[in-house]
Amino acid sequence: MSGRSRQALLAEGLARQGALEPAVEACVEAIRLDDADARSRALLGELMLAVDAYDEAIAAATHAIELDPDLAVAYLVLGLAYERRGGTWDQAVLVWHELAEVAPTLTTAHVQLGEAFSSAGFEAEAIDAWRHALELDPTEPRAMYDLAVAALKREGVPTALPGFRKAGDLDPSQDDFFFELAGVYDDGQPAPDPAEVPPDRDARLHAAAALAFEEDYFGAADLLRLALDENPEDAEVLALAAFLYLKQEATNEAMALALRSLAISPRTRTAVYVLGVAFSRRPGMNGHAARVFSALAAAEPDRPMSHVLLAESLLGEGRYTESAAAYRRAVQMDPSCVRARFGLAAVLLAEDRHAESAWEVRQAAYYDTRRQDLFWRLWDMTGEAADADS
Amino acid sequence: MAESAVGDGVTQLYEAFVARDPARAIAVVEASRSAGLSHEALLDKLYAPALSLLGGAWASGRLDEYAFTQAAVTAEQVSTFVIPSAAALDTGVTVLVGAIEGDEHSIAKTVAGAALKQAGNRVIDLGEDVRPSTFFERAEESGAWIILVSAETEEAADRVSRVREHFDAAGREVIIFVTGGPFEADDQRARTVGANGVSRGAESAMRLVAGAAARLGDKR
After folding, report:
1. Domain residues for A253?
2. Residues of chain A contacting B48 with CB distance shorter than 8 Å
3. How far is it, in rounded angstroms, from Cα B198 to Cα A343?
C-alpha cells in the first residue's frame, strides 16, 4: 500500500459511492492529518467540482499539484474547473498541456487542450491537438466532433456535416440506439455459439443480434441466412441483415434490404433506422433522411438519438431552427448526450450565437469526462503507479 | 405517368441491376423521366422499389451473395441519375459577402456565405478586412445587387455606412444586409449605416436573400 491514512481511504470509498458530503468531511480530515496528502487534495477538488464550487476546486487541485507535480488527476480537476468557471482560457491551456505531459497517452488531455486553444482563439493549435488525439485513438468521437465544428467555422455547415456524421459513426451511442430498437441489451453474457443456436426463428434472430452486437457480422449473417431460407419475408430479419451491410459500408445493399423490410412491414423501426442512415450517407439525400428520421422520432419520441439523427438531417437541409429544436429535445432527455451537445453547438454557431455554442461544447466536455469516469480511471492508474514505486 | 407504366419501369430497372447492365438501367430511368415521372419522384417511385425487389431476391435466395453485391454496384452507378443534386438549383442571384475593413472575424460571414451557396446562390466571399470601395468594385464586376457585410465590433460596424455611400454616389441600386453583434444588439445601428436588414445567422441570411431576390425579381 502507498501508506495513505484511513481517513484518506474512507474519503475515497465514500466518493466512489457518490456520498459527497461525508466524502468531503473525510477528505478535510485526511488533509488535517497529513497536510502533504496530494491525492486527498485532488479528491477534494473533484468533490468541489461536482457541486460547482469552482474556486474551491481550483484551490484544492492547485495545492495538490504543488505537492505532487506528476499527479494527473489534479490537472484534470484543475483544467475542468478553469473551463467550467470560464474566462481563464490561457490557464486552461497550460493545465491541459501539463496533463498531456504527465499522461501523454491520455487522449482526453489532447482533446481538452484543443478545446482550450479554440476557446482562446488559437484555432490552428486546436486542430493540431485534436489531430494528435485522433492519432492516439482514431475512434475518439469528441476530437472528430471538435474538428467538425472547426470546419464549420472555416467553411460552413455543408463542409462540416460529413465530419459530424463520421464522428457519429465513431460514437458507440448510435449502434447502441439500433440495438435498443432491436430489443438487444448488453446483459454481460457472451453471444451464443452459432452452432448451438436452436433451429427456430426467434432464437436465430436473437442470437444473430447478439453476434452483431459483438461485431461478429459473419456469424450473424449465417444465422440470418438460415432464418430467411425459412421465411424470406421476415421484416425483422431483413432489417438486421440490412444493418450488417450498413456496418460493412455496403450502403446500397443495406438500402435494398431495409426497403424490402419496410415493403413487408412499414413499421419495422430497425429498418427505418437503417434506411435513414443509408440516406444520410449520400450527398443530396438529406431531405429523404429527414423524412425517414422524422418518422422514427415520431415512433420513438422518448429516445434522444432519434432526435439527434433527425437534427443532423435538418442541419444538412439548412433548416437550422428546426435542427436546433430537435437537438434541444435530445439534450433535454439526456443532458450527457455529447453528440447532441456538439450538434447544438454547431447550429448555434450557424446562428451567430457563439457564446451559447461554446457553452454547449464545455457541457459536452463535462459530461464526456463523467461518462468515461475519467477521474477514477486516472486515479486508479496513478494509484497503481504509486504502489509500484513504493 | 400511369401506375402500370411505373410498375413496368421498376421491374425493368430491377432486371437491369441483376443483369449488371448500367446502360440499360440508365435507359429505364430516362424512359421513365421522358414518360413524365419528375426528377423528385424518380427515387421514390422507381429506384427505391427496384432496390426493394433486389432485396427480396436476395432474401429468397434467387440471388446469391455475389450476384446481389454486383447488382448493388450497378444500382450505385445509376444512383446519380435519380438522387437529387446536393446543391440546390442555381438561383442566378449573386451575393457578395465580406467582413468590413478593420474586422478580422470570419465565422459569421463564412457560415452565412456557405449556407447561401448551398441554397443555390452565387456567393463571392471577399474575406475579412475588406475596404468599403472593394464591395462596390466587386459588385460592379459581378453585377451583384445583394451584399452581406459583417462587423463584430462597434467601430467596424459604423464603417459599413461607407459601403452604402459608395453605391449611392454611383447611383447604383443595391441591397445591403448586415450581420454581427453590434447590429444584432441594436437594429437602429443598421438603419444608421444604411442597411436594408439585419441577418441573425445563416438561416436568417437565406431568408433575407430569398426575400430580396423575389422582390427585386418582381420589380424587374
Report:
1. 172-372
2. 255, 259
3. 25
